[in-house]
Amino acid sequence: MSADCIFCKIAAGEIPSRRVYEDDDIIAFHDINPWAPVHFLIVPKMHITSMAQLEEKHAALMGRMMTLAPRLALEQGCEPYPEGGFRIVINTGKNGGQEVPHLHVHVLGGARPWKHG
Ligand code: 5GP
Ligand code: ZN
Predict the structure, then answer these.
(1) Which residues surround ligand 2, an ion (CB under 5 A)?
(2) d(C-alpha 45, C-alpha 21), whole Å
């Protein structure tokens, strides 16, 4: 856990969130400021600052996060592929639009139009 990291605090339960999934290594919760009808974040419990800090040892964890995405997307109301589907976004760094420096996977879906994109 990294001190003063908002997503570490959410993972530890110190800041409340609307959780959609949790296991020993991963949590998923609704984005506080959604820009699509379905918008949740998949987050590793361990503090990894961004995609830029990923190492080979994180491959299995990242693989699990990515394979969770389609399952949770359906559970949260995304219509099935191909008419429905979802968008995955991983903002990385300042130019990548990252605001929270703890790696997270945005999962966006639901009927359009969306607020962005
Ligand atoms: P980024 O721009 O870093 O990719 O996205 C950060 C996301 O985290 C934003 O979409 C923002 O709405 C969300 N967020 C920031 N603070 C909180 C919080 O305290 N709780 C929840 N549930 N989402 C948050
Ligand atoms: Zn953190």
Answers:
(1) 2, 5, 7-8, 47, 102
(2) 12
Mean pLDDT of the chain: 97
Counting ligands in written order, which one lies closest to the CA of residue 48?
Answer: 2
Distance 78 CA to ligand 1 centre (A): 20
Short-list 91, 96, 81, CA closest to 41: 91
> Model pTM greater than 0.90?
yes
pLDDT greater than 90 at residue 77: yes
pLDDT above 80: residue 80 = yes
Angle at the Cα of 56 from the Cα atoms of 50 and 57, rounded to 5 degrees: 90
**Residue 116 is a catalytic residue:** no
Q: Which residue has the tokens 């339960």?
A: 13
For residue 52, give the DSSP letter: G
Q: What are the structural domains of the chain?
A: 6-109 (3.30.428.10)
